[in-house]
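Human: Note token order:
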Amino acid sequence: MPATVEERENTSLVRLEGAIDIASVAEMRSVFLNALASSKEVRLTLEGVTEMDITALQVLYAAKRDAAKAGIHFALEGSVPDEISAAMTRAGFAKFEFQK
């Protein structure tokens, strides 16, 4: 799972790609913690994600929750692949929304 953070003037863009599962959630969590540490708005793109298991969804949810607690805007950039949207629904995250 390639995970990158692109630092912009007022935002940190987190880009996730490929399959994200239990083997890669530690890296994903680290990327989110670094992005949140900047105290900038965090933008997330999932366009290159091919699959996500429940552990990855839990880390995503935790990152969004941590951002809200810190008063950091956490938003989705771009579209979410249908497979990822379906995985979120199956996992009970159907109401898990991002502001665009």
About this structure: The chain has one domain: 3-90. The longest strand covers residues 41-52. Residues 42 and 70 are 12 Å apart (CA to CA).
